[in-house]
Write a structure and sequence with these properties.
Structural class of chain B: alpha+beta
Distance between the termini of chain A: 91 Å
Radius of gyration of chain A: 40 Å
Distance between the termini of chain B: 17 Å
Strand order of the largest sheet of chain B: 1-3-2
Helix content of chain A: 55-70%
Shape of chain A: elongated
Number of strands of chain B: 3
Structural class of chain A: mainly alpha
Oligomer: heterodimer
Shape of chain B: globular
Largest sheet of chain B: 3 strands, antiparallel
Number of strands of chain A: 3
């Protein structure tokens, strides 16, 4: 048909030739749909109707050509049946409406890529409009902190008379036990030397020379509370103890200055040295047959770890340290029992056993209570406050928070964090939970965690006997892990993810320690039985009620712990995470007494082997 | 009697597909068949038919081919695809169910 068309204008013909034709060297001009209408030779009203319909369809030229040809054929067919042009035009319908319907139908036939790009015409401006609104809200918001959470944290300590606070006495002990003018370290190397290592004589000399300091340590451990006062003007501001800590503080974090993030827990490292020195002194006292001093050092260590637990400051720093330090104390006690079983009298062993049995449940070792303060403090410094407990993330808050988190991850100031925040901050604000929802969810998590600490971990993380109630807390921690795998959820819950207390590791550590403690109490009962009967019992049941109120439950299965004599020596163990009695054999490949102490995994997933409760090896404190 | 626009929107595509079931047809032919076989009830304005055909084509239920006669005149013929045939079976069942339900209510055959 195109051959029959005459083109008065060569340029127009070229313009209306498809590229495919041009590539073949033909200038056909066959996309000129107007020319086709004229060439059809219809009466002007028909020609005009087709022209209007096709023109108003606003389709691509090739599509217009197709519609044109179809309408030409339609009218030819109509005229061929004998109908006149006026009737055909009358029954055709409204040209404008037809063009609209044809356009809509033809667009549906276009490629999905074209349709996606077309929808971007609206999406992109809409996105920018939304972004601008969000940006205005993000950059205009200002946090207004009103609550002094450090004061709340200190309230309990400040309400306690200074004579009942341990820290002032620990502080005096530190001054006696250390050299604060030393440039190589305040605590002497003697405090860190291995017991019976090549430097043991130095340690012995140090201990003999510093018994006054140790006496103060023991005195401090008897106080009801630890007594550290948090905050820049609190106990950390102590030039006599060494202002190096204070001078070493990182740079300002803007709105986070003075927050609970800004606390310096410098006492933690000091208490670690106390532990090392007291543990060495237990060994020395044992060798010197000073049973009274060894007992006092041990009780002081246990009391100090309980003080740290009751202090339970933020981020479980104190609880994780108190568990570690208590683990060292338990190992020290067991070493005395194993290597010098005759050091302590029956009465002393009974006192130690009673002291050890004070800890009943994970909540006696671990608490999340002070964690409740962290999020509200961070929220008041990073979010707006609508006066009703709600608000949104602000640039000022997010910027300083990002700066803090970068420093925590060792990312230097050269990282262009704020530039990224300018681009992504408004979206971060929109995607993250509101202040109120964030706080509610956070408190919910802490409530669940606190509740789970009131019972043995097997009741809340027993994959073998899973019930909805038991698995709730465990599932919850899994849900939190899943947030990290979703870009949206990790943004939505970013603060909770960053601040929520560890939900599994610490409870597992606490539960493991309770198991080891059970083992030590059984070890003491076995020693007492041996003294009275000249032999070890055949079963643990024989220990009750004279030497043990009851046989402790296996902390993984709930059944009584296992016991056997190996070459005349007692062995007390849990069947471990695989729930299979391997006769007290350690897990294959993991030569750690506590490697089989695992919860939340099924027996099939667990390594074969048992969890040795007593006697743990002399180097068992490496576990903690 | 002409069917109202909303009803025709549902009935039109099924009617056109039904006509195409017996073989390929071109636009004007479909208009005439609809008018004749439904005694004018399903008579469709030409401005409605072509967008309807293009829609069916976009959905993949019909396909078309252009046939050029010796005199140079071309016509576009439409026919059902396999997908369109399956759709017609489904739609026909729905219309039968609808008709039966309406009959039970006394709307039809009253």
């Amino acid at each position: 048909m195109a051959d029959a068309i005459e083109y008065p204008n060569a340029l127009r013909k070229l313009r209306l030739t498809p590229i495919s034709d041009l590539l073949r060297g033909h200038v056909t001009g066959r996309l000129d749909w107007r020319h086709n209408i004229r060439a059809a030779g219809f009466a002007p009203p028909v020609e005009n109707l087709i022209l209007q319909v096709v023109r108003r369809s606003r389709l691509w030229r090739s599509e217009k050509l197709s519609v044109t040809d179809e309408l030409i054929a339609h009218f030819r067919d109509g005229l061929a049946t004998g109908a006149n042009a006026e009737d055909l035009i009358g029954s055709f319908g409204d040209a404008k409406q037809t063009a609209k319907l044809i356009r809509r139908a033809k667009l549906r036939s276009r490629s999905i890529i074209w349709r996606a790009l077309r929808s971007m015409r609206w999406i992109v401006p809409a996105f920018f409009a939304v972004y601008i609104v969000l940006a205005l809200r993000f950059f205009s918001g200002q946090p207004h902190p009103t609550v002094d959470y450090i004061a709340i944290l200190n309230a309990k300590t400040l309400q306690t008379p200074e004579s009942d606070r341990a820290w002032p006495i620990y502080r005096r002990a530190i001054l006696l036990l250390t050299d604060r003018s030393s440039k190589s370290g305040f605590w002497p190397d003697a405090a860190e030397h291995d017991i019976h290592g090549k430097h043991w004589p130095e340690t012995v000399a140090y201990l003999h020379a510093h018994q006054a300091g140790l006496a103060l340590f023991r005195e401090a451990s008897t106080k009801p509370i630890f007594g550290w006062i948090f905050g820049p003007e609190g106990s950390q501001n102590d030039p006599e103890l060494g202002c190096r800590y204070i001078n070493a503080l990182p740079t300002s974090y803007g709105v986070l200055d003075g927050s609970l993030f800004d606390l310096k827990l410098t006492y933690i490292s000091e208490m670690r040295y106390f532990l090392l020195v007291a543990r060495a002194d237990i060994q020395l006292a044992t060798e010197e047959h000073d049973a009274d001093r060894a007992e006092k050092d041990l009780i002081a260590l246990l009391d100090m770890t309980d003080q740290l637990h009751r202090q339970h400051a933020l981020g479980n720093n104190d609880d994780s340290r108190s568990i570690i330090y208590r683990g060292w104390a338990l190992t020290a006690a067991q070493n005395v029992l194993q290597d010098h079983p005759d050091l302590w009298t029956d009465a002393t062993l009974t006192r130690i056993a009673h002291r050890l049995s004070r800890l009943q449940k994970p909540a006696d070792l671990l608490s999340y209570e002070d964690n409740r303060l962290i999020l509200p403090d961070i929220l008041q410094r990073t979010y707006t406050d609508d006066g009703h407990g709600n608000g949104r993330l602000t640039f000022a808050g997010a910027s300083d928070l990002a700066k803090y988190l970068r420093s925590m991850h060792g990312i230097g100031p050269e990282y262009p964090g704020d530039k990224h925040l300018v681009a992504t901050g408004p979206l971060l604000m929109a995607a993250s939970l509101s202040r109120r929802d964030m706080l509610n969810l956070y408190n919910q998590i802490i409530d669940r965690n606190e509740a789970s600490l009131q019972m043995p971990l097997r009741f809340s993380a027993d994959a073998n006997q899973a019930s909805d109630a038991k698995m709730e807390r465990w599932n919850w921690s899994h849900e939190m892990e899943e947030w990290n795998w979703s870009p949206l959820l990790s943004v939505r819950y970013y603060l909770i993810n960053a601040l929520a207390p560890v939900t599994y590791d610490l409870p597992a550590m606490a539960e493991t320690q309770l198991g080891v403690r059970d083992g030590l109490i059984i070890g003491i009962a076995l020693e007492l039985y041996h003294r009275h009967h000249g032999r070890y019992p055949d079963t643990l049941a024989e220990l009750t009620p004279d030497f043990l109120p009851e046989v402790p439950a296996d902390r993984i299965t709930g059944d009584p712990v296992r016991y056997r004599l190996v070459n005349g020596t007692p062995l007390v163990y849990s069947v471990g995470a695989d729930r299979h009695d391997d006769g007290g054999r350690l897990t294959y490949r993991y030569y750690d007494d506590n490697a089989a102490a695992q919860w939340g995994i099924s027996p099939a997933e667990a390594k074969r082997g048992d969890w040795i409760l007593y006697p743990q090896r002399g180097d068992a404190d490496n576990y903690w | 009697m002409r069917i109202e626009r909303e009803l025709m929107r549902g009935a039109g595509p099924v009617a056109v597909m039904r006509l195409l079931q017996s073989g390929e047809r071109y636009g004007y032919e479909l208009i005439e068949l609809l008018d004749r076989q439904s005694a004018g009830v399903l008579a469709m304005g030409q401005s409605t038919l072509y967008p309807l055909l293009y829609n069916l084509e976009a959905k993949g239920w019909v396909t078309s081919r252009i046939e050029t006669a010796d005199n140079g005149r071309s016509r576009k013929y439409y026919r059902l695809t396999d997908k369109g045939k399956k759709r017609l079976v489904q739609d026909s069942k729905q219309w039968q169910s609808l008709a039966a339900a309406m009959g039970k209510l006394g709307v039809m055959g009253a």
